[in-house]
Fold this sequence. Notes:
By secondary structure, the chain is mainly alpha-helical. The chain is built from four helices and no strands. It folds into two domains: 1-40; 42-77, no CATH class. It has helices at residues 4-16, 25-38, 44-51, 61-74. Bound molecules: zinc ion (ZN). Residues 52, 54, 56, 60, 63 line the site of zinc ion.
Amino acid sequence: MQNEKDLAARILVNARAGRGVRLTPDTAYFVGLKLMTASEKPTLADIVAVICDSKCERPCYPCTGKANVICRAYGHSVDAPLRPEPG
Ligand SMILES: [Zn+2]
């Protein structure tokens, strides 16, 4: 199997182009395991709520920035299905 980032990039390119993806059973198993662990992670909003010492009513800029760094490093749960905008 190619590496994870190549696989993810290929899936995203196809999705953005409005095309589906066919996976081998081994790759589908791997993707399924990854999705199972992804759904166990907190969302960006969950992370903001935990790290904000001021308990801001709406996510404040510094806490959102820190949460974005954490999400980029460790991943996060996606709140809603990604619907890429065409173009
Ligand atoms: Zn805050």
